[in-house]
Amino acid sequence: MELTPKIKFLGMTFDVTVMIGTVVTAIIVLLIVFLLSRGRSMKPRGAQNVMEYVIEFIRGITNMMLEAKKAEKYLSFAITTFLFVLIANMLGVIVMVNSEVHGAIPSLGITEKALKTSHEISWFKSPTSDINVTVAMAFAIALYAHFSGLFKSPKRYFAHYFQPYALMFPLHLIDECAKPVTHAARLWANIFAGEVLILILREGIPYLTAVPMFLWIGFSVFVGCIQAYIFTVLAMVYISQKVADEH
Fold it and tell me: How many degrees, rounded to 5, is the angle at CA 7 between CA 6 and CA 8?
């Protein structure tokens, strides 16, 4: 069982692996967009083709939810969300960084008691395999959707809670509260389960688990791509429900 380094700040505990993974993911997304958007020309080729394919792919998602002109307003948001979740899903599957420690490190929460169970420390994992990250993203998207709808038309925003009947208000309220919870849980559960199984197979007998592990890694990459797509689609669905001219 690998140990996880943690630090305490202002009475709160932070997972160092999540912090490292999140920063690395943000840097990778920034580099991808920066490098693939350099040297633009009217006849795209090479890296520009890749970036334009990503843009058109995400534009297809936004245009499904909103009319084209309004969809363009949310295109950059959708692209950023998709790329961040995609890269975050891949990190813990493709890259695993561990080290051995033979002495307590109190500042990282590594105690002598913890060292009795394992001397191996994990320094890297998919940020989206941590429920705190997916919950934070899902609730941020939910708040953004609600405020967008509220600022667009306060009257219609509040009116929809009582449609088609006033008695529907409690159900609408439950629905709005459940959306970010299911949005977060779906992504977290899939990525977390994939990484756990990889760790289990890695600890097994090599000649029995090597092939299943590599097959599962390939499947996890596929799942990571699908989950990035689903997360982005649901984000745009929730936003469109608040800002579209007709619900």
Answer: 130
- For residue 66, which amino acid is it? L
Determine whether 6 is exposed, middle or buried from the number of CB atoms within 10 Å of its CB (0-12, 13-18, 19+).
middle
Single-letter amino acid, residue 92: G
What is the C-alpha separation between 107 and 99, in angstroms, rounded? 17
pTM for the complete prediction? Answer: 0.85
C-alpha–C-alpha distance, residues 89 and 221, integer Å: 8
Domain ranges of the chain: 6-243
Helix residue ranges, H only, the chain: 16-36, 47-65, 68-71, 75-94, 112-115, 131-152, 154-159, 169-202, 206-243
Tokens of 60: 């297809």
Residue 173 near residue 161 (C-beta atoms within 8 A): yes
Query: 6-9 and 120-122 as β-strands: parallel, antiparallel, unpaired?
Result: unpaired
Residue 18, token pair as written in the block: 């999540």
Residue 125: name the closest of 211, 199, 209, 39 by CA. Answer: 199
Q: Do residues 216 and 198 lie in contact, with contact meaning Cβ atoms separated by under 8 Å?
A: yes
* Tokens linked to 112: 């002598």
Which stretches of the chain drop beneath a pLDDT of 70? Answer: 1-3, 5, 39-42, 44-46, 96-104, 106-121, 123, 245-247
Which tokens sit at 196?
């756990």
Contact present, 227 and 88 (Cβ < 8 Å): no
